[in-house]
Structure formats: C-alpha cells, structure tokens
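Could you help me review a protein record that somebody else here produced? What it holds is a sequence and that sequence's fold in token form. I have pasted the whole thing underneath without changing anything:
=====
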Amino acid sequence: MSSLQVDWKSPITRRIIRSYIPDWVLVVVMAAVFLGVDNIAPFRREFSLEDKTIMFTHSARDSVPMWLVAIICCIIPIIIIAIISLGLRRSLVDCHSGILGLCVSLSLCAMLTTVIKVSVGRPRPDFIDRCQPPSGSSDPEFGLSNYTICTTPADTHDMIDGFKSFPSGHSSFSFAGLSYLAFYLAGKMQMFADELGRTYKGFLFSFPIIGSLLVAISRTEDYRHHWQDVFIGSLLGLGCAYFAYRQYYPALGRVTCATPFKARLDGFKGRATNLQVPDGPLQQPNYGANNELPMIDQPLQTVNVDGGDYITQHNVR
C-alpha cells in the first residue's frame, strides 16, 4: 500500500495528530506576537547630525521588497519540501515535519527580530534624509540630537521605520527560510553522513545559502541597514533555522538524517478493554524506511470501548 494512504480513523493516527497541535499553536502565537510588536513604536535613540553612517540617501523602494522575500523564503521552500517528501519519498510524515519545522523557524525568527528592533531603536543609514532637520541645525554643545529636531512628523511611517535598523529583518527572515531549506536538502542527500564527499551535494546545499546572502547584501545596497545589522540578522536567522530543523530531524551527521523523528506515541494508552495495552511507554510500531503513519494491514474490526465509545482495531505496520 502507498505510504500516502493513511488510516485517519486509527486511534494511533489521531493521537499523533493531537501531539503536534501544541507545535502549530506555538507557531500561531509567535506569529501573533510578531504582528503585535511590529505595530509598537520603537525606542527613539539619540543620534548625531554629523554622523556620516546615517547620512545616506533614502530610497522609497527596496531592491527586494518584503512580499518577494516571503515568496523566496516561505512559499518556494514549502513547494520544494512538498515535491521531495510527497513526490519522491512519498511520505506524509516527512512533508508535515518539514513544513512544520519551516514554520517554526520563520515565526520564531520574525518574533525575535521584531522584538529586538523595537527595543534597540537604532537609526537606519538613511535616517538623516528621512528626518530632514532644518538647514543649519547642529547637535547640542554637550549632547546629541533626538527625533524632535526633525521636520518630518514623528508619527509617519518613514520616521517610525527609520529607528528599526537593528537587526535586519530581510536578512534574518531569508536565512531562517532558506537555511532551513539547505539543512533539509543536506539531510535528504545525507551530505554529512555518507563520508563520500560528493561535490554536487555541496553545490545543491549552497544554492539556498547564496540566495539568502544576496537578499542580505541588498539591504546594504539600499542603505536600509548597517553591515552589523545584516551580519547579526543573518546569524539570528541561521540559528533559528537550525534550532527548528533539529526539533524534527536527526543531526546531519547521523546516517538516519534523511528521515524525520518518529511520531510522538510515548504515553499513549488505549481505552478499549480488549486491546491489552501494556503499562509503560508504548512500543513504537514499525514505520518502515520513512517513519510513516500506521497503515492498514488487515480488515478493520469494531470493538467495544469503556464508556460506550467505539474505535477500530487493526494491525499496523
């Protein structure tokens, strides 16, 4: 039977599905925190009108707009993961684990990046052009200037966004999505586990990394971020990607790195009186090469359950 055919009525299958609900809830919570914090006005750090690092020209357009970053770092990885897991490996478990890990990486990275941005309030490289201080303005004799010297209203988007330089959101988000995809590809190719040093694997692995690097570099070309913003943002995204990947897949040096962790069945206890579920952790069923959900191996039987409920009993393989 194809590994894409799952007995959705199986109590074990339902148990597996329920075990991942907290993960998806956490993804939604982190995304909600990101959206909420992103609407908070950032800390307005003092600055010097003579600081050359914030005197670059402001451009209204980004070389890589955020909608394109979302496609590159979210939609494209989802499509590639689905093609590999469903089309090549024919594994629903792998597809779910791969996409869930990607969502954890992106939502965690977006939340952390936004919280840091709002808290730090670093002026962007083009801040003086956004600020438009009056002609002839200068810093106080024994201090720095603040946003009140600007002729641009403080509540405009340009001014609010002007204090969100550190870290780079484009850089962190691109590395969170594309680095995760690179780890996923490396695992499927057993790039670090086969000890054969096949160059083409490294070539395929590097493609997503190069893509995220190009997105990050574009932020300095647009004068949206200082190099430190891009560097730290990239490290943040890379860290989130690896953290999320390791929640659902073995280390890349393991020979089992091509398959996701087995389904969460520890502690499962059936309620049927005649199922004879033993005490202690439930033995993991044999999932096969791809750690699949339970497949129907014999005709279903209806059994009576304590409390008047009914479930189906069958052998799994």
Confidence is low (pLDDT under 50) at residues 267-282, 294-317. The CA atoms of residues 182 and 205 lie 5 Å apart. The longest strand covers residues 301-304. Residues 41-135+143-248 form one domain.
